[in-house]
Write a structure and sequence with these properties.
The complex is a heterodimer. Chain A is of the alpha/beta class. Helix content of chain A is about 50%, strand content about 15%. Chain A has 20 helices and 14 strands. In chain A, the strands form four sheets. In chain A, strands 1, 2, 3, 6, 13 and 14 form a six-stranded mixed β-sheet that branches. Chain A has a four-stranded mixed β-sheet with strand order 8-11-7-12. In chain A, strands 4-5 form a two-stranded antiparallel ribbon. In chain A, helix 2 links the parallel strand 1 and strand 2. By secondary structure, chain B is mainly α. Chain B has 13 helices and no strands. Classes of the chains: A alpha/beta, B mainly alpha. Chains A and B meet through helix 1, strand 2, helix 3, helix 11 and helix 13 of A and helix 3, helix 5, helix 11, helix 12 and helix 13 of B.
Chain lengths: ~450, ~270
């Protein structure tokens, strides 16, 4: 037994040595430098792009083709595209900036972009991008790349809010139209719940950001913050929203899980047939086709659940260039290439649940006549609501604090721990304190 | 008396069933989702009505699963033996050698366990880069080779060996290395196997460091592949994610089942003497 153990130990040690040598030997092929071709006029060297959570098919083939097409345009250039899980991409970029191993182009959400830009980690792009390219993007999404008077990102794909409902539940309750006000949401959801015996409406909260943009939509042009002072507590429509959602939660029209409020919980409830109505982006339907085919078939999209002229929020995915890039010209050229109308249209068609950020791609027949599948109706409704969509919540230094204050107060309001007036007063106090701390003189 | 004993048994069995449901339940639930066919919804009943392996096949087809599996095997294959070697050498020295500052060294090693990884990941990233360990299998293992936990765990096990056994070996002319290898190590075999399982589990599932230290996706490990799937921008395919999760868990499960009798005795051995 002892001998056998010694033999095992010996094999382990030899094995580790062998594997270690093999592993070490297979590295260090990337010794080639990353020259910028800026001086010679022609782009050359290496340019590395990081995408966020776009691995696997069909994206692998799309990016391989994109890489080849860009290399054809610039034969001296070697394009490397890697995918990073989205939740860690900010941390990975920040860590890479402490060394020299930085990517040249990164796919970032605006909140990550602001945090990295605030630490001096991103290149200011105003002088590097032509006016023609700037003008090719939709105005709202393009604005999301700005931070403190600088341009730090170019917009890529988007999603905007639509309403999603279970067609069977609506039919069962004899409802033919989606609501367009908070009172109508209450009436519709109450009827469905009485018919199905299940909670029917879910208000996505996420980190508080979804409720924040909902409040701006409800305010319909009236500011909720004026010169760094919260003024939301007196808005009748916002008070009504807090009052009726609290009532729906207490009456079981909204599920108990709504206190958690995440996008994925809404998806799970909807897929299980335990939800009839919610507001979300087109991506909401993403896992539905494979995860709940029967529910997918009866899923229907409509306009967002508020005034048809109210401004809607748009969520943007951007491209930024880290300040330590060794090949800025190639990075800018690649960012422009990936986000041009043709490539964005192809990407949106492939992804099936996102919209492009260029005006030209949106004019394509794909968005004008997308067909009648649930995803296609979602795309159609989203492209309609995109006409009144903009980035409603400006990205500011204290964004995280603002979101958190809303999330906590809104959940306490749902649970009846605070009255709607108290919840809004609490948000206002915390926002005022936060703006005072940062000295932000902002209106939105 | 008999009734009391039966009641006790019922309570024990009830508790065992509850604990089994809590621990094994999520695994089985994931397995059932992975086995559901494309036509069955995730929430359409607990059991798959028409079981299918299509999701497992897709996990291989739609991702570079084999490549990530191979990377994980290599990384674990390096980390486990090296951690056993260095931890048992250091642990033995700290248990048996009387050198000045031994307690200080032990305290310093143990205190590193309290430092969160986020605090030193940036300097570690830089050092790994400067040493040419970026995008290398060895580079992915540096957190698991010679861990503070391993050293402490082995030291505790060596302290349990009667000194007389080693003294007689010295009298027969053995040197300290021979005593370590031929006398001490065989006597702490269960602890070594326990440490091997711990190291295997940590390395197999390690996520943040492999992600930070790789800028080349061909070096990704299984945990990164799973994160990529589950963080897909529209929520991902839950059946595929479940299948990939099961495939990722199987090796750890098999190794644990194979070595579990050593694992239990080893884990308790290390806790006897302070």
């Amino acid at each position: 037994m002892e001998r056998k153990f010694k033999q095992m130990l010996f094999i382990f040690l030899m094995g580790s040595l062998f594997i270690g040598l093999v592993a070490c030997n297979s590295e260090s092929e990337d010794a080639g430098g990353t020259d910028s071709g800026a001086d010679s006029g022609e782009l050359s060297g290496e340019v590395t792009m990081w995408t966020a959570s776009l691995a696997g098919e069909p994206f692998d083939t799309y990016f391989a083709d994109l890489e080849a097409a860009f290399e054809d345009l610039h034969p001296e250039l070697d394009v490397i595209i890697e995918d990073i899980p989205q939740n860690e991409i900010e941390q990975k970029v920040l860590t890479s900036l402490t060394g020299d191993d930085v990517p040249d182009l990164v796919n970032l959400a605006p909140r990550y972009m602001v945090n990295i830009a605030a630490q001096g980690g991103l290149l200011e792009l105003n002088d590097l991008v032509s006016d023609e390219v700037k003008g090719s993007y939709l105005e709202g999404p393009f604005e999301s790349g700005h931070f403190e008077d600088g341009l730090y990102a170019l917009p890529w794909y988007l999603t905007t809010t639509v309403s999603w409902y279970n067609g069977d539940h609506f039919e069962q309750a004899g409802i033919t139209e989606t609501p367009t006000s908070t009172q109508e949401i209450y009436d519709t959801s109450k009827t469905i719940t009485e018919e199905t015996g299940k909670p029917s409406f879910y208000q996505i909260i996420n980190e508080g950001d979804t409720v924040m943009s909902k409040m701006i939509t409800l305010a319909n042009g009236e500011p909720i913050v004026e010169n760094g002072k919260a003024v939301l507590q007196n808005n009748e429509d916002i008070i009504e929203f807090f009052t009726l959602t609290q009532k729906m939660y207490q009456e079981g029209i909204m599920p108990q899980e709504n206190a958690e409020g995440s996008f994925s919980t809404a998806q799970e409830l909807f897929m299980a047939g335990n939800l009839s109505l919610t507001e979300s982006g087109v991506t909401f339907l993403g896992p539905m086709e494979s995860g709940a085919p029967a529910i997918y078939e009866v899923s229907k999209a409509g306009q967002p659940l508020n005034d048809v002229n109210a401004p809607m929020d748009v969520a943007v995915m951007n491209f930024s260039i880290p300040s330590k890039t060794s090949n800025p010209d190639a990075a800018v050229a690649l960012a422009e290439f990936v986000t041009n109308a043709e490539n964005q249209l192809e990407f949106a068609e492939l992804a099936g649940t996102v919209l492009p950020s260029t005006t030209e791609s949106l004019e394509d027949d794909y968005f004008q006549n997308p067909g009648d599948s649930p995803k296609a109706t979602g795309m159609l409704e989203a492209s309609k609501s995109l006409e009144r969509a903009e980035v409603l919540v400006p990205v500011v230094e204290n964004s995280a604090e603002l979101r958190e204050a809303v999330k906590i107060a809104y959940v306490e309001n749902l649970q009846g721990k605070l009255t709607p007036e108290e919840a809004l007063e609490k948000i206002a106090e915390q926002w005022d304190a936060s703006f005072e701390k940062t000295g932000e003189d902002i209106t939105f | 008396m008999k009734g009391k004993s039966r009641n006790k048994k019922i309570i024990v069995y009830f508790l065992m069933i509850v604990i089994t449901v809590i621990t094994v339940g999520p695994f089985l639930y994931t397995l059932f989702i992975a086995l559901k066919s494309p036509s069955q919804g995730i929430y359409d009943g607990l059991l798959p009505t028409d079981p299918s392996l299509i999701n497992f096949v897709d996990a291989f087809k739609k991702t570079d699963f084999m490549l990530y599996l191979w990377n994980t095997v290599i990384v674990t294959g390096i980390a486990v033996p090296l951690n056993l070697l260095f931890s048992s050498l250091a642990g033995y020295a700290l248990a048996r050698s009387n050198f000045k500052g031994r307690t200080l060294v032990l305290t310093l090693i143990i205190s590193t366990m309290t430092v969160p990884f986020q605090l030193y990941m940036a300097p570690l990233f830089q050092i790994a880069g400067e040493m040419g360990l970026r995008n290398t299998h060895v580079g992915l293992t540096i957190l698991q080779i010679s861990t503070a936990f391993g050293i402490y765990f082995m030291r505790q096990a060596f302290l349990n060996i009667p000194k007389e056994l080693e003294e007689s070996a010295y009298m027969d002319g053995a040197n300290p290395f021979q005593v370590w290898l031929k006398i001490a190590v065989p006597l702490v075999k269960p602890t070594i196997i326990s440490l091997a399982i711990y190291t295997f589990t940590f390395t197999w599932g390690d996520y943040l460091w492999p992600l930070l230290n790789t800028t080349d996706s061909t070096m990704y490990t299984l945990s990164i592949a799973l994160a990529q799937m589950s963080q897909n921008f529209d929520g991902g395919n839950l059946k595929l994610i479940s299948a990939a999760s099961i495939l990722t868990t199987i090796p750890s499960l098999l190794i644990f089942i194979w070595l579990q009798k050593y694992f239990i005795s080893g884990a308790t051995d290390g806790a006897v003497k302070g």
